[in-house]
Amino acid sequence: QDWAAIGQSADIVYAQMPLDPTAYTAGGTADSLLNWAIRQVNRSKLVMMVDASAVDRLGESFTALSNDAALANFGELQFLQGGEQVGANESIEVVLSGNATPLEWDGSSLTYKYSYDDAGQNHNVWLSNPAALAQRLGVSRSYNLRGVSVRGLGELEDGPGYGAALASATGQTAAPEATGAAIVWTIRDPQGSVVASESGSDFSFAWGGGTDGNYELSAEFALGNTIATLDSTSIAIGDAPVVAEETTEETTEAEEETAVAETDTSEETAPEPTPEPEAEPEPEPTAAPPPANLDPGSEDAVVNTNANVRTGPGLSFGTIAGGANAGTSVSLIGRTSDNSWYQIVLPDGQEGWIFGTLLNVNSGVDLGGLEVVEVTPPPGGGGGGAPAPPPAPISGAFELGGQTAGLPVGPMQISGMTWIKRQHKWSPGNTGNDVQGLITEGHNAGFKVLLSIPGQLNPSSIDFASYVVFLGQVAALSDPPDAIEVWNEMNITREWPAGQINPTSYVNDMLIPAYTAIKAANPNILVITGAPAPTGFFGGSCGGNGCDDAPYIAGMMAAGAGSYSDCVGVHYNEGIVPPSWTSGDPRGSGGHYTRYYQGMVDAYVAAGARSLCFTEIGYLSGEEWGFVPGGFLWKAPFNLTVAEHAQYLAEAVSLAANSGIVRLFIIFNVDFTTWNDDPQAGYAMIRPNGGCPACETVGNVMRGQ
């Protein structure tokens, strides 16, 4: 088809995007398709059309399907031990009979997937969730299209979640976070109370049995706020007759997922067994009082049914071995703000969390007086389920800071800075406490702290494991930094071992484990990739002894850096023309992107970066000295005047603040005084005479003047 001709004659053109869930990574197939489409059709006419459905892949063929259809491959319940009629306290074991493999997290598509065989052919299935849809829609944001269209929303249950995904496409809200998934096994007694539960990735479940009566065993699939019933069966224990299965009302999310809360669904009383005429009827055993009638006595509370006790207030937290049986007395020491979960102390002294309806609380306890405890959700899923996705990246408005030698609070405040950058050159054997002073000093001065953590210069090797441990310790400090930059200029041999430079190695060996360790300790810390050295020395190529920064960034993004960072680090320090220029630099190779501020931004976005953090940006003026060292002389006699230095910094700040792409902008530097072969003082905002023209120009921009 002639898309250019269609684009000229049509008012609206719909571009069907790939069904392949992995196509939506930065620089992936979806990006390539839109890059092509906007060259054929005016972007103001172009509507990107995506599917919100689950996807089944066979070879290179992709088919959309509902989540219910996707879950059908888990199969039905089958008994491996016992059956629908067993004796008292006789064990049973069941399994889901389908041929699906265990769930695995796919970070490239922000959802879970599994595989199955059908007629000797292997299929892969990706499930649908709001975070995956938000990722697909997010590809459109940098193209300024007419709009987006979504298929398959009518088959989805999590309305608020998918609504948030749609809102994120227009920038109204942050993208919904990826959530964990689990198979939830539940057994309920004749009163409807939960007597056993388990959640995780196992397709089988075992139970040690119970007393006489009719019980219901159910298997559900929980994905975020969506819960789907896989199958259920009745189990008659002892002399209780086998009863036909009934369809019950759907229980609440908390009841299903924790498998510990009682249900409110009404059930008919099972018919009493009719004694045979010749048999002497045996006396009925004395029934124990229903769990809900347990009296806490003088204790704070008593557990009213066999229940899970978790390490935090929610399903993403793991369970404490053994849980708490009905009748266990506990002390109450905390609560969530909505009183849905309570922090308790078990009789053996262990602390944990329990869902509120599972407790009978002493009427003398003032629940409102309990401390509201805020607990950070863990990065890993609880209960033995499939691996949890990485935490969603932190987003936020533009912020300004500076790299300093001292602590020039006044000039920084005049400039509108709220961040201060400090650097620690890591060596094996360092501990997190080694940087506490740097961080606390910045915080005490009223600034957020970016801690850049490279290694020693000209390394022959890097102990990745020790480095990651160190970053985890830094993140776990009582006064941690607000952002961590993971290494520095790793595309050149001054910072990375010769012969080993490789963006995929950086991501897999350093960035992913570092991001995981930092977020596990403190998910609020902004994680910034190391910024490559801006260079065209390697002719646009990438090899073990060096790599131009744009192809290095492209390699990082292809290896998954976007999913394991909050923004991509950028350095820019060789400009001698205004920041808005994209051509006209008088040097050789004047068209190279590293000559221009906007060229750097455009090159990194084209390489797949979606959020940028300038961790070092500066302009060099040697006017006060009358020269600059040879290696830094780009325009005789001293590059820029002090007035140009102040003007260009302000213009760059303005461009960044209004770009929608730059998250953090750290000026290099505020107060350095070294002037030698590395003329750091020439970059400084505070000039040798103590004046700070750039403080005024940058401050005016930040104040909107």
Overview of this structure, please?
The chain is globular, with a radius of gyration of 31 Å. An 8-stranded parallel sheet has the order 26-25-24-23-22-31-30-29. With 705 residues, it is α/β, with parallel strands linked by helices. A hairpin with a 2-residue loop joins strand 9 and strand 10. Helix 4 packs parallel to helix 5 and helix 9 packs parallel to helix 10. It is built from 15 helices and 31 strands. The two termini are 51 Å apart.
Strand tally, please? 31
Class of secondary structure makeup: alpha/beta
Helix content: 10-25%
Instruction: Choose one word for the global shape.
Output: globular
Strand content: 15-25%
Report on the biggest sheet: 8 strands, parallel
On the 0 to 100 scale, the average pLDDT is 83
**Could you tell me how far the N terminus lies from the C terminus, measured between alpha carbons in angstroms?**
51 Å
List keywords for this structure.
globular; alpha/beta; eight-stranded parallel β-sheet; 705 residues; 31 strands; five-stranded antiparallel β-sheet
Give me the secondary-structure topology:
Elements: H1 3-9, E1 13-16, H2 29-40, E2 46-51, E3 54-58, E4 61-65, H3 67-71, E5 77-81, E6 85-86, E7 92-96, E8 104-106, E9 111-118, E10 121-126, H4 130-138, E11 147-151, H5 159-169, E12 181-188, E13 194-200, E14 204-207, E15 213-223, E16 226-237, H6 253-258, E17 301-303, E18 329-335, E19 341-345, E20 351-355, E21 359-361, E22 399-403, H7 409-414, E23 419-423, H8 436-444, E24 448-453, H9 464-475, E25 483-486, H10 503-521, E26 526-529, E27 542-543, E28 546-547, H11 549-558, E29 568-572, H12 597-606, E30 612-617, H13 642-657, E31 662-667, H14 680-683, H15 693-702
Parallel strand pairs: 1-2, 2-11, 6-16, 22-23, 22-31, 23-24, 24-25, 25-26, 29-30, 30-31
Antiparallel strand pairs: 3-4, 3-10, 5-7, 7-14, 8-9, 9-10, 12-13, 12-15, 15-16, 17-18, 17-21, 18-19, 19-20, 27-28
